[in-house]
Amino acid sequence: MNKISMTRRAFVTSASAVGLIGASGLALPYYSRANQRPAFTHGVQSGDVDATSGMVWTRTDRPSRVMFEVSSTENFANAVRLAPLDTSPASDYTVKRLLTDLASDQDIFYRMTAADLADINAVSEPTVGRFRTAPASKRDIRFAWSGDTAGQGWGIDETGMKTYATIGKHTPDFFLHSGDTIYADGAMKDEADLPDGGKWKNTVLIDEKRKVAETLDEYRGQWKYNLMDKNVLGLNAICPTFYQWDDHEVVNNWSDSKDLSSDDRYSEKNIHVLAARAARAFHEMTTIRYEPSEPGRVYRKIAYGPLLDVFFLDMRSYRGANGPGMQETVTPQSRILGEQQTKWLKRELANSNATWKIIAADMPLGLVVWNDASKKAGAEAVSNGDNGPAKGRELEIADLLRYIKNAGISNTVWLTADVHYTAAHYYNPDKAQFQDFNPFWEFVSGPLHAGTYGPNDFDMTFGPELKFIKAPTAEQGQNLPPSAGLQFFGLVDIDGATEQMTVRLMDRDDNELYKVTLDPVRSA
Fold first, then answer.
1. Which long-range CB contacts under 8 A does 401-404 form with residues at least 24 apart?
2. Most buried of 208, 293, 358, 431, CB within 10 angstroms?
3. Does residue 65 surpass a pLDDT of 80?
4. Quick one: the chain helix, strand, coil %, rounded to 5?
């Protein structure tokens, strides 16, 4: 594919790009189209992009044959046409595929057109998106991360999910969604009372969001709701999203010990049934890659050139049941990552030649997250809240941190969300109960569009030092709406020349709240 001079920002802001996105239906409801032709209902997505490949996704309104074109130019000159794929009710008319044999460090434009399987001559208008492949050589890299979308009843209001639009203005190479991508357990109402006496109005609402998700179609509906927001659609059209999941994709704080017997919202009480349906919807509705060795796997590595590898953890699927978290030895019940994932992570970290190793964790390491917040009981995340030597899930993390030190693995940085505020933590072995590790940073950001909470208490097992925090004050209270402005994301810039990493914590109005530049440790 030929190189082009047009920048990502130029594409995003150009009149022709606006026309492409408008023609694709990204800003228009699909029901405004002539119903005799197929239509794309929820825009496009790309994700899991590396130097030579990337996933793309779309959804049609009926069984359709979807034609794909790929080009390095916006006008699709000399486009490569791929074999078509069919959509069907079995996957709720979604389709995704891996684009391969791409040039590195290249803007890729993809275009999809749908033909009605019942009337192959009835053809949709095209839908278009773009992404940039990872570099094969050292260049500047920028990406964003955050988590927590459409939670606590705060849905799509007149403004929409503004944080997504703010992220888009920075034209990141990719966006890392750190989990709680949907709130399947968060039923919404048309209106909600605000602390100042006003009303929050969910101007967009569908039936699937008026109750908790239990059926496969209801889980799918949670995803489709987020894809009705203009800001989400706009970011998806120009920026790949790398997804991981946490608990609200299924139900709050789910593990094998989750008991729904007294929760009247649920007629399906079996957590394993709910998790299976949720996982299927997650993979149908996102651009996460398919792993043949373990279909449905979420943990994976994305290599993004010589300066960056991103390791996505799954801290939900392989954990033991939530409990006090006070086990003295590592057992299947005390784990949060699971034996196989831990072995994979150690191996991939040791084999990584990238300057920076981002560990994308859906839950923070040193913050106390209670399984039962009202009673302050049970470990929902890693920490058990006793400030002592490693126990329970802390044992698995302690073993990992010890391994990173002993194997000489440098420049690991942890990124996370989950707690609905933003913070910077520096883990210092000199202040820790468990001390056999090298110092490292953990940055927390979120929510994208949900209630703002916090701050959480520290557990000093791994010696976290609070370098920055932005969370609700005692006077503001908890569960602040997005309109209060305390919605957060992070930006990471890696300098191609110096290899320094700069991390910025931002709010939805694009204010820079905190900034730190990290120098890479050079190998001897």
1. 401/434, 401/436, 401/437, 401/438, 401/440, 401/462, 402/436, 402/437, 403/346, 404/349, 404/437, 404/438
2. 358
3. yes
4. 20, 30, 50
Q: Which residues of 244-254 are buried (b: 16+ CB within 10 A; e: fewer)?
A: bbbbbbbbbbb
Percentage of residues of the chain with pLDDT beyond 70: 93
Indicate the average pLDDT of the chain: 93
Helix (H, G, I), strand (E, B) or coil at 96: strand
C-alpha distance across the termini of the chain, in Å: 38
Single out the residue of 487, 504, 512, 505 nearest to residue 160, CA to CA. Answer: 487
DSSP conformation letters of 488-509: EEEEEEE-TTT--EEEEEEETT
User: What pLDDT, on the 0 to 100 scale, is given for residue 35?
Assistant: 72
Give the pair of three-digit tokens for residue 107.
């803007």
Number of H helices, E strands in the chain: 8, 25
290 in Cβ contact with 297 (< 8 Å): no
Percent of the chain with pLDDT over 90: 92
Q: Is the pLDDT of residue 15 over 60?
A: no
Q: What is the pLDDT of residue 18?
A: 42
**CA 279 to CA 466: how far, in whole Å?**
35
Which tokens go with 132? 């940039």
Concatenating the DSSP letter of every residue in 302-338 gives: EE-STTEEEEE--SSTTPPPPB----SS--TTT-SS-
- pLDDT tier for residue 195 given thresholds of 50, 70 and 90: confident
Query: DSSP label at 449?
Result: B
- Closest residue by Cα to residue 243 from 304, 299, 308: 299
pTM of the model: 0.93
d(CA 229, CA 141): 27
Tokens of 241: 């999203």
Neighbour-count burial of 457, counting CB atoms closer than 10 A to its CB (0-12 exposed, 13-18 middle, 19+ buried): middle
Q: What is the pLDDT of residue 283?
A: 98
